[in-house]
C-alpha cells in the first residue's frame, strides 16, 4: 500500500533498497520506473520483515511500528491537536497538520525539516538561528544501505555563512561566501533554464533553497557517498532517466585547501596551484614536487607599523571563513581602513555586491586558505590582500606612510576603546556591581555579583548563554579576562532560573545551595561532612572548592567542581573513575550553544578489560583512544613534543584517570566537547588576537570513527580504499566490500587449527583493537604473553601493555574479532600487534633477507610477459659446482650426457627434497610451504613439451591461490658441457653489469637466466624461463642473449656481442601494462601495424587487463584516445606542433616535457623528465575511468596526483552531441555553435532534451 500525492508526483510506502532484504519507509518519485527514493524515515532502524505499519496517534505523533507494537521511528512533534492529518504534498514533503486549521501551510511536523540524502525544490538546507535547529543532507552509507554515511552538506556559520560539503569531520568542498546573488566559489548559474536559487541570511535563520523555473521540469540534488560528490540531476522524460546537470566538487580546485595558505588554485594553469601575487612558495622544493600543503608566504615581510598596502585579486573564490570577521554595516572604504589598522587583518572585500557595491565588509585574519581562480568576470569576487608597501601599485610613499601610521595609532586606540566597550557591555550583561574573593557561611552570591579567583583567571557568577533570547540564568565559571566570556562549568545545567532572583549560599551544615527567590533549591552539593567554618573558594585553576576555614591544609577539599565537570576539561582536572567507590568523572557536551543541559556526547574512561578513553554518542561508542602503552594512547599520534601541555594516564589500584598540565603558566588551554560536530576539541588562547585557536580535534580523521572497517579490518587513511583487511584475512562479503560497505569486516583466508598449531604475525604501527574482549596482565613479559595466548584457542591477538621499557612489559590479549584497528605511518605512533593466523599464512619477516620473497610475486605478475618463477638458485649452483670439481674430466666425458646435464632441482624434486634447493636466507624465514609452491609452479613452466606448460593467466592464478597443483613432468632444461662457463663470477671484474642476465648454453627451445640485482630505481627477479607461453619472449637466433633491466624501467633483451647498447631483440616498453614511464613510446609502428597502448588493471588487486585503454587513434589525422571498451571516452584533439588542441598546455610544467612524433614510420606520444632526480608516471585508473599523472614526493615517500584526464564534463567525448560546443565556464556547459540551435526541445530554449548525458543539436 502506498500514499500518493495529489498530482501523483510522489509516493510514500515501504521499500527495500538494492540487494537488501531490509524494509524502509520512504518517499519516491511516483512516475519514475527506477523508484528513485528521496527520503527515508527509519534510516537507522530497518525492519527485517513486512510487518511495518505507519499510524498517527491521537496526540498527532506519527509512529512507525513493527508488528503493531515496537516503534522503530516516530516524529518529535509536541503539539497536541484533535484532528491530526498526515499528508504527502506534491512537493514531496510529508506533513502533519491540523485538519481544522484554515492555513494549509501551518505544519505541526514536516519531513523537509529532516532531509535524507536528497534536496528537493522548496526545501531549506540551513540553520534556525533562534533554536539552533539544523537541516543538512547526509549521504546514504551505500547504494543498498540508507543509514547515514559521513558525507554531509549544510550551512557553515564560522564568521560568515557559506555552504559546505564535509567528509566526516573534514571540510571537503566549500561554496565560498554568499555575495547577494551567488556564492563566490561557484560559477554564475543564474542563466540556466531549469532552476533558480537563493541564500537567506537574517537574524532568524540562514539557509539555501532552490525552485524550478518550470513546474513540468524535475530536478533534485543528491549526495553520493562512494564518489564523495554532491550532484544535481534533471529528469529526461524522453528516455525516462535522470541526467546529471552539475556536480560539486566540479574539479580539483574545488577540493578544500588544496594549495595551502595563500595559494591560488587555477585549473587553467599548470601546475594548478599558484601563489597569490606578492607571495612565493614556503617550501620551494616541495612545491616543485606538487606538494602544496605548506602554501605560500609574503615575498617581502609585512611591516604594519611603517605601513603595508593592499592589492586587488580579481575573480577569485573567497578564502575559508574560519578566521573571518563580518560587519554588515560597514562600507568598503571603511572596511579598508579597519583592516589597515589591525595588523592581523590579511584581506578584506565586499560582502554583498547586490547593494550597490559599497554595503558591507568581510575581513580575514591569518593565512588565506581555499582560494580558487575563475576566468569569467561574472564569477568570483574581488579580494584585497595585504602585502608589503613596496609591493603595492600606484602608491604615494610619504602620503601612504603618514596615513598608515595614523591608521595604526587610531587602530590601537580604537582597539583599546572597543575592548573597554565590549567588556563594559559584558559587565552590564552580567550586572556585575561588585566582586568578592570567597563566600563564608554568613555571605551569599546574588545575580549581579561575581566571585573572582585570587589571580584573576576565573570568575563565578550568573550568566545567560550568548545566543539565548530567554530569561534563563545559570550559575557558571568562565575565563575572567576573556571578552567572550567562555564558560567552563555550569552548576544548574538541568534547572535554569527564570529571571535574576538566583542566590548562592552555604548552609550551616556546609552544603552549598543555589536557590530561587531565596526559597526553592534548583541545585546543591552532595557534601555530607559538617564543619564549623565552611568556605567556598574559586581557585586560579578554575576549580570551585568547599573547604574548612580552620584547616591549615589548603588542598583538603570537602567538595570540588572538578569532580563534576560539564563540557570542559581544565589543566589539573581528572577525567576517570575512582575504583574504590566507582565514582565516575566524565565530560558531557552542552545540548547546543545556548542550552548547557547535557547532550548525548560524553567523554570518559572505558573500563572493559584494559582502560582507555572513549567518546560516546548516547550508548554507542564513537571514538576510542586505544590502550595506554606507557607513553601515550596507541590510537593517538605522539604529541609529547608540543610546546603547550603535558599529559598522563594514571592506572593503579585506587583510581584510573587522564589528566593534563600546562608547560607554562602563561599559557591557557582547554578541552571541550561539541555536540553539534560530535567532536572533542582542544583550544589554546591567542593573547594577540584575543581568541581561542583550535589545536587538535578527536576524531581527527575518518579512521578515528569506531569500528569503521568492521571486524579484523585495518583503517589506513593513506590508502584507497581506507579499509583494508589485516594480513591473513579477506573481506567477509567481497561484493559489499567493493561498494565501500565494510561493516561485515574480514575473515581468515585459511581456517585456524589450534590443535595442529597456529602462528602469529606482526602488524606494526597500529592502534590497539577495541577492549571489549581483552585480558591484561601488568607484569607478564612478551614471551610469556605469546605462550599464554597460544594455549588459549580463543585468543586472537596479543601485545605488550607498556612499550616504554625497551623490550616492553605487560600483556594484553584479545578474544574474538579484532575491531577498531587503525594504521599509522610513523614509527613513533601506534603499537605492535601480534595476530593469530593459520600456520600456512605466517610471514616471519627478517629485514633484508625477506625482501626478495616480498618483491617476487607482485613484480613478476606486474610485468606479465615475464611472469615465471624457477627456483634454481645460488645454493643449488654451489652444490653443482662442488660436484663438478670433485670429478675428473675423464669421468665427466664418459658419463651419460643426460644424467650429467640433468637439472639439479628436478632431481631433488623426484627425491622428495626440493627444499634443499632454497636460498639459505629464504629458508631461514620459515615460509617453506610458499617456497615449495613456487618451485612446483616453476617446474610446471619448464616442462619438456611447450603445450604442457601452463598459460600466463594460469600462472597468475596459481601464484595467488592455494589450490592443488598437477604433478610436473620432465623439464626441458639440459646442461651441456661446462654448464657454468656462461655465468660470470660475482667477483669477476670482466663480468658485465650486475643488473644483467647471462644465459646457459641450452637447447633451442629453452633458456635459463639469472638476474643479479644492482641498486637502482627498479628491481626485478627472475629465475628460469621457457620460451613459450610462460615468458612470452621470442629471442630469435641470438647466440649470446642478455636480459638487462635499464634505469628507465625498461626490461630488454639484447645480443651481448652487439656493439650497439640500444639494439634490443625485445623490450618491455613495447608491451606496456597500465603505466607509461619516461622514454616509453605509446603509439603505432605504421610499417608493421604494431600498436603499443596502455591497458588498465581490472582492479587494484587484479592486474589482468581491464577495458580502459590509452593509445594513438589513426582514423584520419592521429590523436591520443582514451577508450572504455570500444567506445571513445576522451580524445586529445589534433597535434598543433606545440601541444594537443583539446588538452591544456603543459609546456610550462617543471617536471616533464613531451612530444608527439608522426612520420612515415611511426606515430607515437612520448614524455621525458626535466630533472632526473624527479620521478613521474602516467597510469590508467579503471575505477575512475581516468588517466592520472603522479609525481613522487621524496619527503613523504608517497606518490602525489598532479593531473587527471578527463578533468571535466567537457573532456568527455561527444558530451554535447553534433554541432554542440562544450564550455566549462557556462551553464549549461553545452552550447550550440553559432548559427545552430538545439535539435530537440522548445524554441525558446527553456528546456533542452538530454539523451544519455549528451545534447542532441541540429542546424
From TrEMBL:
Coiled coil: none annotated. The chain crosses the membrane at residues 402-423, 852-875. SMART domains: B_lectin, PAN_AP. It catalyses: L-seryl-[protein] + ATP = O-phospho-L-seryl-[protein] + ADP + H(+); L-threonyl-[protein] + ATP = O-phospho-L-threonyl-[protein] + ADP + H(+). Residues 249-285 form the EGF-like domain. InterPro entries: Bulb-type_lectin_dom, Bulb-type_lectin_dom_sf, Cyt_P450_CS, EGF, Pan_app, S_locus_glycoprot_dom. Its EC number is 2.7.11.1. Pfam families: B_lectin, PAN_2, S_locus_glycop. It comes from the Eukaryota. This is non-specific serine/threonine protein kinase. It comes from Hibiscus sabdariffa.
Amino acid at each position: 500500500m502506498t500514499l500518493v500525492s495529489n498530482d501523483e508526483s510522489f509516493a510514500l510506502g515501504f521499500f527495500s533498497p538494492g540487494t537488501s532484504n531490509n524494509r524502509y519507509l520512504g518517499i519516491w518519485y511516483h512516475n519514475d520506473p527506477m523508484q528513485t527514493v528521496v527520503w527515508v524515515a527509519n534510516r537507522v532502524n530497518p525492519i527485517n520483515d513486512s510487518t511495518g505499519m505507519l499510524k498517527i496517534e491521537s496526540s498527532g505523533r506519527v509512529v512507525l511500528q513493527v508488528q503493531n507494537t515496537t516503534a522503530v521511528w516516530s516524529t518529535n512533534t509536541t503539539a497536541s491537536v484533535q484532528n491530526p492529518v498526515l499528508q504527502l504534498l506534491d512537493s514531496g514533503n510529508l506533513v502533519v497538520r491540523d485538519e481544522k486549521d484554515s492555513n494549509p501551510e501551518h505544519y505541526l511536523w514536516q519531513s523537509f525539516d529532516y532531509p535524507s540524502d536528497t534536496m528537493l525544490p522548496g526545501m531549506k538546507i540551513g540553520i534556525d538561528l533562534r533554536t539552533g535547529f539544523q537541516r543538512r543532507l547526509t549521504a546514504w552509507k551505500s547504494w543498498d544501505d540508507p543509514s547515514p554515511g559521513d558525507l554531509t552538506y549544510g550551512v557553515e556559520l564560522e564568521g560568515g555563512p557559506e555552504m559546505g560539503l564535509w567528509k566526516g569531520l573534514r571540510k571537503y568542498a566549500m561554496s565560498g561566501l554568499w555575495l547577494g546573488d551567488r556564492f563566490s566559489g561557484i560559477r554564475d548559474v543564474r542563466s540556466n533554464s531549469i532552476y533558480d536559487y537563493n541564500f537567506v541570511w537574517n537574524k532568524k535563520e540562514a539557509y539555501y533553497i532552490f525552485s524550478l523555473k518550470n513546474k513540468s521540469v524535475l530536478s533534485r540534488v543528491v549526495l553520493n557517498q562512494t564518489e564523495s560528490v554532491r550532484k544535481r540531476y534533471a529528469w529526461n522524460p524522453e528516455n525516462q532517466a535522470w541526467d546529471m546537470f552539475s556536480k560539486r566538487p566540479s574539479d580539483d580546485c574545488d577540493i578544500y585547501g588544496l594549495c595551502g595558505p595563500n595559494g591560488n588554485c587555477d585549473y587553467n594553469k599548470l601546475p594548478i596551484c599558484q601563489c597569490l601575487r606578492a607571495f612565493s612558495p614556503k617550501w620551494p622544493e616541495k612545491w616543485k614536487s606538487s606538494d602544496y600543503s605548506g602554501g605560500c608566504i609574503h615575498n617581502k615581510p609585512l611591516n604594519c607599523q611603517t605601513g603595508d598596502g593592499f592589492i586587488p585579486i580579481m575573480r577569485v573564490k573567497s578564502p575559508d571563513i574560519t578566521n573571518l570577521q563580518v560587519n554588515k554595516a560597514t562600507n568598503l572604504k571603511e572596511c579598508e581602513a579597519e583592516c589597515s589598522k589591525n595588523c592581523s587583518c590579511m584581506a578584506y572585500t565586499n560582502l554583498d555586491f547586490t547593494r550597490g557595491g559599497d554595503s558591507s565588509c568581510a575581513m580575514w585574519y591569518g593565512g588565506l586558505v581555499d582560494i580558487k581562480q575563475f576566468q569569467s568576470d561574472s564569477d568570483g569576487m574581488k579580494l584585497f590582500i595585504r602585502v608589503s608597501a613596496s609591493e603595492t601599485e600606484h602608491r604615494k610613499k610619504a602620503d601612504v606612510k603618514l596615513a598608515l601610521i595614523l591608521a595604526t595609532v587610531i587602530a590601537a586606540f580604537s582597539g583599546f576603546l572597543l575592548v573597554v566597550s565590549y567588556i563594559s557591555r559584558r559587565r552590564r550583561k552580567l550586572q556585575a556591581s561588585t566582586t568578592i574573593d570567597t563566600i563564608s557561611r554568613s555571605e551569599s552570591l546574588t545575580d549581579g555579583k561575581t566571585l573572582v579567583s585570587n589571580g584573576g583567571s576565573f570568575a563565578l557568577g550568573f550568566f545567560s548563554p550568548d545566543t539565548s533570547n530567554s530569561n534563563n540564568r545559570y550559575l557558571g565559571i568562565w575565563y575572567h579576562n576573556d571578552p567572550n566570556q567562555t564558560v567552563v562549568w555550569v552548576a544548574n545545567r538541568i534547572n535554569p532560573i527564570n529571571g535574576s532572583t538566583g542566590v548562592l549560599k552555604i548552609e550551616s551544615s556546609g552544603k552549598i545551595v543555589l536557590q530561587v527567590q531565596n526559597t526553592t533549591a534548583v541545585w546543591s552539593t552532595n557534601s555530607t561532612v559538617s564543619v564549623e567554618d565552611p568556605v567556598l573558594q574559586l581557585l586560579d585553576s578554575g576549580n570551585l572548592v568547599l573547604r574548612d576555614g580552620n584547616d591549615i591544609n589548603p588542598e583538603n577539599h570537602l567538595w570540588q567542581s572538578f569532580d563534576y565537570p560539564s563540557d570542559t576539561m581544565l589543566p589539573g582536572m581528572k577525567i576517570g573513575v575512582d575504583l574504590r567507590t566507582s565514582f565516575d568523572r566524565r565530560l558531557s557536551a552542552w545540548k547546543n550553544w545556548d542550552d548547557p543541559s547535557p547532550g548525548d556526547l560524553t567523554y570518559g574512561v572505558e573500563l572493559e578489560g584494559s582502560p582507555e578513553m572513549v567518546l560516546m554518542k548516547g550508548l554507542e561508542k564513537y571514538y576510542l583512544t586505544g590502550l595506554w602503552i606507557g607513553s601515550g594512547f596507541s590510537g593517538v599520534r605522539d604529541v609529547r613534543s608540543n610546546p603547550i601541555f603535558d599529559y598522563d594516564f594514571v592506572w593503579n589500584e585506587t583510581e584510573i584517570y587522564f589528566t593534563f598540565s600546562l608547560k607554562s603558566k602563561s599559557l591557557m588551554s582547554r578541552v571541550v566537547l561539541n555536540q553539534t560536530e560530535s567532536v572533542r576539541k582542544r583550544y589554546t588562547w591567542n593573547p594577540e588576537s584575543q581568541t581561542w585557536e583550535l589545536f587538535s580535534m578527536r576524531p581527527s580523521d575518518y579512521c578515528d570513527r569506531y569500528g569503521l572497517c568492521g571486524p579484523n579490518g585495518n583503517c589506513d587513511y593513506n590508502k584507497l580504499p581506507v579499509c583494508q583487511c589485516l594480513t591473513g584475512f579477506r573481506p567477509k562479503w567481497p561484493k559489499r566490500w567493493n561498494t565501500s560497505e565494510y561493516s561485515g569486516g574480514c575473515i581468515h583466508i585459511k581456517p585456524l587449527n589450534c590443535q595442529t598449531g597456529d602462528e602469529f604475525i606482526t602488524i606494526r604501527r597500529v592502534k590497539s583493537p577495541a577492549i571489549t574482549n581483552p585480558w591484561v596482565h601488568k607484569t607478564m613479559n612478551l614471551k610469556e604473553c605469546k605462550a599464554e595466548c597460544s594455549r588459549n584457542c580463543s585468543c586472537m591477538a596479543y601485545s605488550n601493555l607498556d612499550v616504554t621499557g625497551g623490550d616492553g612489559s605487560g600483556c594484553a590479549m584479545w578474544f574474538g574479532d579484532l575491531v577498531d584497528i587503525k594504521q599509522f605511518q610513523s614509527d613513533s605512533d601506534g603499537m605492535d600487534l601480534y595476530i593469530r593466523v593459520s600456520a600456512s599464512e605466517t610471514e616471519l619477516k627478517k629485514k633484508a633477507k625477506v625482501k626478495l620473497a616480498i618483491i617476487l610475486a607482485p613484480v613478476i605478475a606486474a610485468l606479465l610477459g615475464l611472469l615465471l618463477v624457477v627456483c634454481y638458485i645460488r645454493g643449488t649452483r654451489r652444490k653443482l659446482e662442488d660436484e663438478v670439481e670433485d670429478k675428473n674430466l675423464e669421468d665427466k666425458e664418459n658419463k651419460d650426457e643426460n644424467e650429467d646435464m640433468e637439472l639439479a632441482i628436478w632431481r631433488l624434486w623426484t627425491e622428495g627434497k626440493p627444499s634443499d634447493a632454497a636460498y639459505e636466507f629464504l629458508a631461514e624465514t620459515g615460509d617453506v610451504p610458499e617456497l615449495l609452491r613456487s618451485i612446483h609452479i616453476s617446474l610446471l613452466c619448464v616442462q619438456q613439451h611447450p603445450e604442457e606448460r601452463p598459460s600466463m593467466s594460469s600462472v597468475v592464478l596459481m601464484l595467488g591461490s592455494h589450490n592443488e597443483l598437477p604433478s610436473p613432468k620432465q623439464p626441458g632444461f639440459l646442461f651441456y658441457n661446462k654448464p657454468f662457463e656462461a655465468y660470470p663470477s660475482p667477483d669477476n671484474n670482466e663480468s658485465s653489469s650486475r643488473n644483467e642476465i647471462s644465459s646457459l648454453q641450452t637447447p633451442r627451445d629453452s633458456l635459463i637466466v639469472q638476474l643479479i640485482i644492482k641498486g637502482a630505481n627498479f628491481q626485478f627477479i627472475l629465475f628460469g624461463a621457457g620460451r613459450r607461453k610462460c615468458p612470452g619472449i621470442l629471442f630469435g637466433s641470438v647466440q649470446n642473449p642478455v636480459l638487462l633491466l635499464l634505469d628507465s624501467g625498461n626490461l630488454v633483451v639484447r645480443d651481448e656481442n652487439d656493439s650497439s647498447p640500444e639494439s634490443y631483440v625485445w623490450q618491455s616498453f613495447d608491451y606496456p601494462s597500465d603505466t607509461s614511464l619516461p622514454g616509453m613510446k605509446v603509439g603505432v609502428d605504421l610499417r608493421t601495424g604494431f600498436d603499443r597502448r596502455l591497458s588498465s588493471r581490472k582492479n587494484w588487486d587484479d592486474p589482468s587487463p581491464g577495458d580502459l585503454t590509452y593509445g594513438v587513434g589513426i582514423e584520419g589525422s592521429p590523436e591520443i584516445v582514451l577508450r572504455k571498451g570500444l567506445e571513445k571516452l576522451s580524445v586529445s584533439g589534433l597535434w598543433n606542433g606545440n601541444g594537443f588542441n583539446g588538452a591544456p598546455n603543459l609546456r610550462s610544467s617543471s617536471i616533464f616535457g613531451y612530444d608527439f612524433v608522426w612520420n612515415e614510420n611511426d606515430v607515437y606520444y612520448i614524455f621525458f623528465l626535466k630533472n632526473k632526480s624527479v620521478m613521474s608516471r602516467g597510469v590508467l585508473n579503471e575505477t575512475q575511468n581516468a588517466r592520472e599523472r603522479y609525481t613522487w614526493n621524496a619527503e613523504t615517500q608517497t606518490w602525489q596526483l598532479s593531473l587527471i584526464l578527463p578533468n571535466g564534463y567537457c573532456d568527455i567525448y561527444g558530451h554535447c552531441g553534433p554541432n554542440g560546443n562544450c564550455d566549462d565556464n557556462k551553464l549549461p556547459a553545452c552550447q550550440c555553435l553559432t548559427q545552430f540551435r538545439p535539435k530537440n526541445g522548445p524554441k525558446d530554449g527553456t528546456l533542452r532534451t538530454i539523451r544519455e548525458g549528451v545534447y542532441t543539436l541540429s542546424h
